[in-house]
């Protein structure tokens, strides 16, 4: 069993690196941007940095990018959003990432232990919470996690605990409540928190566990928050410059902006807490 798990994780790491090639998203994709490794901001060249960020940061970081690039016109931000575990494996596989923003400390700790981040750049910048949601038109009587034990609830969705921190937080909470053993067979694993949200919005599952910030970004009239789930581990987001970045100065500038008062104001407007 140990060998199989290691083999699966190795294959997952390779796939994560392949996905990275097609998964990077630049919100300025329609613009012609000249990329240069020159760190001299007075050169007139624009340097592109790649920021790998947890999927739950998508909306907040997209707005943050606009403000950041207005203040730093010589730096273009290219985002790569996915589950934190997937992003971590891409970095371990050698993907050219400049900044990593994780939804959990554990994935950042792994990179730290492998000397894959610039230690002095690491900062905690946001916190979150997990909520239980259902489709807005659900006829199921659900007010808390214990109601999911009902035979009427056939399927629930959580993020894959191996790659999506929201899934790990959820499993820990359900284990502590003594519910996981019975609920595990009903579970549909999702790649990341955004996929969980989609499953619930479409009514493909009876309920799901997402971050409160993701529930807040759901399309109006699609989901309903039923309960906030106490987590065993506090949900804390760390950010750091990736070791070996060819644009370390610009990467650090981005980290500093995220953790600045302006960056925190944007994050808080999307429901994140300091």
Describe it:
The protein has helices at 2-23, 58-71, 84-92, 105-113, 165-176, 180-183, 193-201, 212-217, 248-258, 261-269; strands spanning 47-54, 75-82, 99-101, 123-128, 130-135, 156-159, 187-190, 207-211, 223-229, 235-241. Helix 2 (58-71) links the parallel strand 1 and strand 2 (75-82). The relative contact order is 0.19. The N and C termini lie far apart (41 Å). It has 274 residues and is an alpha/beta fold. Helix 1 crosses helix 3, helix 2 runs antiparallel to helix 10 (261-269) and helix 3 runs parallel beside helix 4. Strands 2-1-3-10-4 form a 5-stranded mixed sheet. The chain has a 5-stranded mixed sheet with strand order 7-6-8-5-9, with helices on both faces.
Write the layout of secondary structure elements.
Layout: H1 2-23, E1 47-54, H2 58-71, E2 75-82, H3 84-92, E3 99-101, H4 105-113, E4 123-128, E5 130-135, E6 156-159, H5 165-176, H6 180-183, E7 187-190, H7 193-201, E8 207-211, H8 212-217, E9 223-229, E10 235-241, H9 248-258, H10 261-269
Parallel strand pairs: 1-2, 1-3, 6-7, 6-8
Antiparallel strand pairs: 3-10, 4-10, 5-8, 5-9
Helix pairs in contact: 1-3, 2-10, 3-4
């Amino acid at each position: 069993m140990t060998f199989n798990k290691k083999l699966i994780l190795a294959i997952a790491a390779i796939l994560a690196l392949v996905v990275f090639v097609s998964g990077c998203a630049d919100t300025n994709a329609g613009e012609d941007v000249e990329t240069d490794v020159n760190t001299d901001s007075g050169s007139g060249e624009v340097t592109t940095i790649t920021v790998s960020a947890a999927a739950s940061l998508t909306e907040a970081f997209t707005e943050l990018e606009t403000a950041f690039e207005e203040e730093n016109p010589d730096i273009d931000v290219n985002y790569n959003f996915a589950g934190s575990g997937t992003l971590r494996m891409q970095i371990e596989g050698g993907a050219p990432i400049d900044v990593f923003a994780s939804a959990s400390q554990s994935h950042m700790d792994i990179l730290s232990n492998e000397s894959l981040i610039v230690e002095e750049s690491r900062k905690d910048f946001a916190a979150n919470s997990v909520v239980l949601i259902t489709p807005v038109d659900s006829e199921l009587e659900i007010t808390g996690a214990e109601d999911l034990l009902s035979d009427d609830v056939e399927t629930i969705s959580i993020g894959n605990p191996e790659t999506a921190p929201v899934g790990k937080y959820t499993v820990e909470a359900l284990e502590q409540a003594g519910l996981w053993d019975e609920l595990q067979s009903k579970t549909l694993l999702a790649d990341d928190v955004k996929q969980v949200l989609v499953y619930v919005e479409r009514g493909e599952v009876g309920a799901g566990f997402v971050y409160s910030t993701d529930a807040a970004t759901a399309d109006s009239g699609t989901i309903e928050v039923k309960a906030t789930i106490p987590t065993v581990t506090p949900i804390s987001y760390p950010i750091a410059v990736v070791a070996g970045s060819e644009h370390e100065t610009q990467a650090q500038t981005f980290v500093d902006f995220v953790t600045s008062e302006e960056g925190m104001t944007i994050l808080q407007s999307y429901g994140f807490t300091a």
